[in-house]
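Dear Dr. L.,

I hope this message finds you well. Following up on our conversation about the binding site, I have prepared a predicted three-dimensional model of the protein together with flavin-adenine dinucleotide. For your records, I am including the exact sequence and ligand specification that went into the calculation, followed by the structure tokens. Please feel free to forward this to your student if that is useful.
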Amino acid sequence: MDKQYDYLVVGAGLFGAVFAHEAALRGKRVKVIEKRAHVAGNIYTKEVAGIQVHQYGAHIFHTSDREVWNYVNQFAEFNRYTNSPVANYHGHMYNLPFNMNTFSELWGVRTPAEAAAKIAEQKAAAKVSGQPRNLEEQAIALIGTDIYHKLIKGYTEKQWGQKATELPAFIIRRLPVRYTYDNNYFNDTYQGIPIGGYTQIVEKMLAHPEIDVETNTDFFANKAHYLNAYPRVVFTGMIDQFFNYQLGELAYRSLRFETETLPVGNYQGNAVINYTDAETPYTRIIEHKHFEFGKGDPEQTVITREYPANWQRGDEPYYPVNNQTNNSLYKQYAKLAAQEPNVIFGGRLGQYRYYDMHQVIHAALVTVATEFDK
Ligand SMILES: Cc1cc2nc3c(=O)[nH]c(=O)nc-3n(C[C@H](O)[C@H](O)[C@H](O)COP(=O)(O)OP(=O)(O)OC[C@H]3O[C@@H](n4cnc5c(N)ncnc54)[C@H](O)[C@@H]3O)c2cc1C
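The resulting structure of the complex is given below.
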């Protein structure tokens, strides 16, 4: 190490980038190492045929936190994209989230009162009483049988790789039901997609003379050296791997993405279409150009099919599985983490928590405040 650094940041995702940026603004010298060949972690986007392709799944920025919204807007201009996914169930198309358009398509109802009566009738006919014992009972108790069978069951079983009757009820505590003709998926005040993609956000955060970035570099190839050579380390990789899985493995769900460029201008007419039947092996198809209202080559489009997958060591750990067993194992790891005075564990993998982008930015800014303004 020819230069003296104050911090080593492991992982050039959103958490690592916010921390590195804020540390550099405070005059700290920061080295960022990233095991992938590129920065930006899972929000990485890459231009293909003039289209920003979300390489690790569809990413829609949404928040009601004005501070976070202002913060991220320093690094990109956001468009007015509103997430309005559509479900394809055996060739029938239904708007999501469940709203008057969905109910009208399903049952021919026209008013909120008619829709509410239909749902109440289905719930009563299903005779689910008492504490729901599994996800199926929970979903039916909340929304009735039609929506459960057509729009929830197949999708959820594919996502988790388990039968709905074997999944715990707590996975869906509530289902967003809207008695208006409003297809906007999120209730947040602010929503959009950065014009020109997400990668620029992280690149701009890291473009500082006090920050050096090294990609294709795995912390675990040289862990002892890094811990020895840097006064402070911000670690955003898997917390169980940091401790060599000594208390056991935390569980993750993984995904496989199948991306294709097609010689058509408009493949599916929407950015996100969910396949909610059990037979289609993927959960959704993303058509990336619709995130920027058709920008890019008018003769071509890029689509990605998303296949849920079991996780095993070596796979990308996309989602933490925050059930009771894993959460209590994580707490044990967090106790070990507290005994590492010079290491800060942050982000989705370091804190084993399903964070959205705005939550990661918020968490990183809280960490920055604790670190520098104490
Ligand atoms: C499929 C999918 C869809 C999503 N959709 C949305 C959405 O619509 N809206 C939203 O707000 N959020 C969404 N998210 C969440 C969003 O991706 C995360 O909030 C955000 O990327 C987390 O940032 P992070 O820095 O914590 O983690 P990451 O982005 O995972 O960054 C961690 C980085 O650390 C690197 N790393 C790990 N281990 C090591 C090591 N040993 N050595 C060196 N580097 C290492 C990794 O390669 C990675 O680049 C989605 C996530 C997924 C998986």
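In brief: Residues 10-16, 33-36, 41-43, 56-61, 218-220, 236-237, 255, 318, 347-349, 355-358, 360 surround flavin-adenine dinucleotide (CB under 6 Å).

With kind regards,
A. P.
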